[in-house]
Amino acid sequence: MTQIPSTSGKVYLVGAGPGDPGLMTIKGKALLEMADVVIYDALVSVPILAMIGSQAEKINAGKRRGRHSSSQAETTALLIAKAQQNAVVVRLKGGDPFVFGRGGEEMSDLIKAGIPVEVIPGITSGIAAPAYSGIPVTHRDYASSVTFVTGHESAGKYRPQINWTALAQGSETIVIYMGVHNLSSIIPQLEAAGLSLDTPIALIRWGTLPIQEELIGTLATILEQISQRGFEAPAIAIIGRVVNLHSLLAGDSA
Question: Tens of pLDDT along 141-151?
């Protein structure tokens, strides 16, 4: 990429959190209020978008399964172009920019293009959605380890596939992002690695929002439950004994 003058604007990679506007960071909110341009993702909630100042140009660059509005290269090119023309450009991403949010890719490309860039972390849904459902991802009596993993791998990535065998044998809680559509292939791999089909699993859709939905079952039952309920993405999956705490702790969690 061609280097641009140091007088360019600055891009802020801002984590919008999981959806509840109360979980937006103070620094992130301040940037939304003062931004010249905000380029946002599909999973950013309406209450968070309402924080954007009236002066800002708002651009939807969101990606949803089967409905990609723009490619990653197009989004990065847009960020560079807007930073050349404006002082404060916010790239608003659901959750945390560096947790399955491609924030690392965007930051690297911006730095290569000579664009100043700063990351404002956000609360990731893999922690917040279970918490709002009364499911602690770690607990002294149930789980001392947790692994966050994507259930939707992109083509051409640095390794051919996730090692589900290692995860099943090495982590007491597994949190899967973007994995609802692939559970039918993930569950047999976990079973083959020795994870019992009686292992509890929770699916949480629209976590932390008033419309949050939950589906609680086991690895043996969850696929049938998904079919019967018509449960769809976007959702987080939590696998492990901590899911059993849902019935005990959910009442006052939100």
Answer: 999 999 999 98
Where in the sequence is the domain holding 73, given as residue range(s)?
A: 10-120
Set 20, 41, 96, 109: catalytic member: 41
Whether 1 has a pLDDT exceeding 80, the answer reads: no
- Would you state the structure tokens that stand for residue 1, as one six-digit string? 């990429």
Give CA–CA dist 234/65, Å, rounded.
Answer: 9
Peptide bond into 234 cis (omega under 30): yes
The answer to whether 36 is a known catalytic residue is no
Section 106-112 average pLDDT: 95
State yes or no: is 41 an active-site residue.
Answer: yes
Give the Å distances, CA to CA, from 96 to 28, 39, 101, 121, 147: 11, 15, 7, 5, 16
Claim to verify: residue 111 and residue 131 sit in the same structural domain:
no
Among 34, 71, 66, which Cα is nearest to 53's?
34
pLDDT of res. 7 = 60
**Do 114 and 73 share a domain, yes or no?**
yes
Count of residues in the chain: 254
Mean pLDDT taken over the chain: 90
143: DSSP letter: B
Residues 72 and 43 in one domain: yes
- By CB atoms closer than 10 A (0-12, 13-18, 19+), residue 75 is buried
| Residues 90/62, Cβ–Cβ less than 8 Å | no
- Determine the residue type at 179: G
Contact 85, 120 (CB under 8 A): no
228: tokens are 């019967």
